[in-house]
Design brief:
- With 228 residues, the chain is an alpha+beta fold.
- It has one domain: Class II aldolase/adducin N-terminal domain (L-fuculose-1-phosphate Aldolase, 3-Layer(aba) Sandwich), CATH 3.40.225.
- Helices cover 32% and strands 21% of the residues.
- The chain contains 6 helices and 10 strands.
- It has an 8-stranded mixed beta sheet with strand order 1-7-6-5-4-8-10-9, with helices on both faces. It has a two-stranded antiparallel ribbon with strand order 2-3.
- The longest helix has 23 residues.
- The chain is globular.
- The relative contact order is 0.17.
- Bound molecules: zinc ion (ZN).
- Zinc ion (ZN) binds next to β8.
């Protein structure tokens, strides 16, 4: 299978451009930017001329609105497309995804930035349950190459990111694997792609950092030592 191009939007996007009010979205953007910064410092979010054809990689989102059931709960704030390489994040680099239709492969959004190419995949995770409030997508060869040894639920290699098939694959993993307990999956057909989620940003972030630690522990086993 040919390696897929990172960062290409594969769904139909209906986007209306405009600013996001700081009063409504500032606190959530701050929380997302903080965890994105941690992931960037670990090399899990970024942009590198030597990786993925130089495209930005990694994106983060959080559900908008009060806890389950309330109006507005079915929308999420997500980092914009091709923001992986930015060293400064502000509200202008986010947008709100207000509707996603997996079957019709459409995403509706508004805000100053266009939605991440992974927005459909984030939506598929949120559809698993109202307790899922944060989704982080990162790229880590360290973890991805050890997904089987880490017993990480893994999407089928033939399934491309950001497609209806990926959304169906996420639902299959939720039915057939301990996905909801692990709060993490590897994207089999998306090189180095890992997704974690949680009730809080910290729960999602810790799912990622715990995976990185488990992968380093395996690296120690493989080589009898661990070197930087
Ligand atoms: Zn990706």
């Amino acid at each position: 299978m040919a390696p897929e191009q990172e960062g290409v939007v594969k769904f139909t996007a209906e986007h209306s451009a405009g600013p996001l009010p700081h009063g409504r979205f500032g606190a959530l953007a701050r929380e997302l930017a903080a965890w994105r910064e941690i992931l960037a410092r670990l090399g899990l979010v970024g942009q590198d001329a030597a990786r993925y054809g130089g495209a930005g990689f990694g994106n983060v989102s959080g559900r908008v609105g009060p806890f389950p059931g309330a109006p507005g709960a079915r929308s999420f704030l997500v980092t914009g497309t091709q923001t992986g390489g930015l060293s400064c994040m502000a509200l202008e680099h986010f947008c709100v995804v207000t509707r996603w239709d997996v079957a019709r492969n459409r995403v509706a959004s508004h805000g100053p930035a266009l939605p991440s190419s992974e927005s459909m995949t984030h939506g598929a995770l949120y559809d698993l349950g109202p307790h899922i409030r944060f989704v982080l997508h990162a790229h880590t060869p360290l973890v991805w190459r050890r997904a089987a040894r880490l017993r990480l639920p893994t999407t089928a290699p033939a399934v491309a990111y950001g497609t209806p098939a990926m959304a169906e694959e996420v639902r299959r993993l939720a039915r057939e694997t301990p996905l909801l307990e692990r709060r993490a999956l590897a994207m089999g057909g998306h090189e180095d792609g890992i997704i974690v989620f949680g009730r809080t940003a910290a729960e999602a972030g810790e799912a990622m950092t715990s995976l990185v630690a488990a992968a380093y522990a395996l690296q120690f086993d493989e080589a009898g030592r661990l070197c930087r």
